From TrEMBL:
Name recorded for this polypeptide: 4-hydroxythreonine-4-phosphate dehydrogenase
Binding sites annotated in the UniProt record for a divalent metal cation: H165, H210, H265
Organism listed in the record: Salinisphaera hydrothermalis (strain C41B8)
Function: Catalyzes the NAD(P)-dependent oxidation of 4-(phosphooxy)-L-threonine (HTP) into 2-amino-3-oxo-4-(phosphooxy)butyric acid which spontaneously decarboxylates to form 3-amino-2-oxopropyl phosphate (AHAP).
Coiled coil: none
One MF annotation (Gene Ontology) recorded for this entry: magnesium ion binding
Binding site for substrate: H133, T134, K273, N282, R291
Protein's cellular compartments: Cytoplasm
Functional pathway: Cofactor biosynthesis; pyridoxine 5'-phosphate biosynthesis; pyridoxine 5'-phosphate from D-erythrose 4-phosphate: step 4/5
Amino acid sequence: MPRLLLTPGEPAGIGPDLAVRIAQHAHAAEIVAVADPALLRERAAHIGLPLQLDPVDYGAAPAPQCAGRLRIDPIPLTRPATAGRLEPDNAPYVLATLDRAVDLCRRRSADALVTGPVNKAVINQAGFAFTGHTGYLAARCESPAPVMMLTTDDGSLRVTLATVHIPLAAVPSAINDTDLAHTLDTIHTELAARFGIACPRILVAGLNPHAGENGYLGHEEIDIIGPAVEAARARGIDAVGPLPADTLFTRHHLANADVVLAMYHDQGLPVIKHLGFSRTVNVSLGLPIVRTSVDHGTALELAGTDRVDCGSLEAALKIASHMVASSHGA
Ligand SMILES: NC(=O)c1ccc[n+]([C@@H]2O[C@H](COP(=O)([O-])OP(=O)(O)OC[C@H]3O[C@@H](n4cnc5c(N)ncnc54)[C@H](O)[C@@H]3O)[C@@H](O)[C@H]2O)c1
Ligand SMILES: N[C@H](C(=O)O)[C@H](O)COP(=O)(O)O
């Protein structure tokens, strides 16, 4: 049975609600909230749900999660949190929960990290350069650039990104043969190791409209993306493209594909979030630890209400367990 660490993320957002809500039923995994216990108790009381927090024992074997209970690894908030109101002083708390979870996963006291949503702006406002979990975790793990992948819970669509949290204007200059080679190698290796998909077919999107229309609408496809796909194929990777992004996400192309590589955040993610918001999971490929996350943000306006959908977190827990099993060769 896996031990999954859950960091609820931004304390003013819906992350604490999610932790309380997923504790209401049994799971086939031990789930440990790395969080402030008072925050979780207060949010549980606020939404009128029972919650018993039991201290985790990392020296003992993981035990299944019982309804109404959650294991806790306590990290104190800097300031009391109010649902819906961001507090920059709590940014170090958010980062401390991630630091603790990464350390535990790296020393094998836990099997995987499942993250709730954070607010990137408030962390930056507090003085920490932060573009998202993915980059932060890579730095903590001293790992080369991981690849962000969003997958529906049933694997019907998987989307990876060549560039992630950078301004749109910076995208063209961030696309280069070295990074594309690393990204394609990581997708190829990680889908086999963590998802059991040997030699996945990767559909590679172009950057420009109609994949550059033979150079009349842009040159990145001819100069960079096409050669990167050819070089990957020569390494035994089943990459196809560059394909026009507007028609790549149609049944015809997706029927025989395992994953899409989009060139930038808003080329790929709106498609998968439109298809499966609240049952889609964010997975970091290429980290030395298993990490999954929800597909949504902090939804500050919903914190402490009865309108919080736990589907993405449930899926993130499930996929993390499958990845752990797959990584162990189960
Ligand atoms: N994994 C993460 O840490 C992560 C992911 C995405 C966005 N974010 C951050 O979250 C913040 C807010 O982003 P946003 O407003 O673009 O997106 P959001 O996902 O917070 O909200 C988008 C819409 O979806 C609704 N929604 C979101 N999650 C929901 C849930 N579980 N149940 C019901 N409704 C839900 C919201 O109410 C809102 O209408 C930003 O700072 C962004 O960077 C974090
Ligand atoms: N791009 C992600 C999404 O839209 O779901 C999100 O911002 C989270 O990114 P990190 O996993 O790097 O925090």
